[in-house]
Specification:
Elements (H helix, E strand, L loop, with lengths): L1 H9 L11 H13 L15 H13 L7 H25 L2 E5 L9 H8 L3 E5 L19 E6 L2 E4 H15 L7 H11 L5 H20 L36 H4 L1 E6 L2 E6 L7 H4 L11
Parallel strand pairs: 1-2
Antiparallel strand pairs: 3-4, 5-6
Length: 292
Amino acid sequence: MNKLKELVKAYHIKTLKNDTYPLLNKLKTDYKNTYKIPHYNFVYRERMTFSVGMKIADAYEVGVNNPQSKVVKVAYKALAKEILQQFYFIIREMDIEFEPYDGQGEPYENSLEMVKDIYNYHMYFFKTTNGFGKDVLDFNNPMLQNTGICIKGYELLVNDVFRIVHDIFGHATYGYSFGPIGEDLAWVTHIRMLSPLARAAMTTETRGQNCWVNFGKHLRDKNNELYTKGNYGWVPPAERPFAAQKIMLLPKEVSGVDVFEKDGQVQAVIIDNWDPFLSLTLKNINNHEHIS
């Protein structure tokens, strides 16, 4: 965080409360005001822990890919609509240049590099067609639909737009890292800008996948304990496999949203008194019915 503060100072930008970046924080606030996004009444009191991360990873592991489910379709449709809306808002208000990254590996070594680039009104994005989980691209996946948006000869898929928007509103606004803790902080920041339906779908795409990558069974020993750095089975973050792509909704304890069908209509309700961590520690979600 000290390096991020130095970056802000170097760019002659005054740091605001909670170390937010004024340019991006104003952009986020203006978006919420423009589209009348309500304040969600919950508090993110802790940080991602091994025990919670493992529970979410296991919930993702047992979840069934079911893109034909009515409730799943409606939730993902809401997510696609809202992230495209956020993308157009960004380019209208910020005049930033987005550029597909064709180099080796990731476009940025860390979030500090990305924030610096954004404040130069430029941002690379990692193309979905160069890496989308461990599966062959399935163009029935709602995240892989064409958007009609072309940048330097490349037509963005919905997932490309999602990566751009999530990096800006989830990571860069507060300088959150790309590690397991930073990813969860980016998730909780970004879901506050979405409708309940879109929030449920985005939780699968971010919190669920992040926890599988960093806390999944492939990183545990025979006693179901996570390998730690220095142990034989420990895998460096850069070498961990991507999660299998699943179009589904995770249990409500993970997202804080109850999604259901009533009288032929899909509805989503924010859970009262939901806590991103306590709600998971109080209940075993592995056997919880998934929305499929």
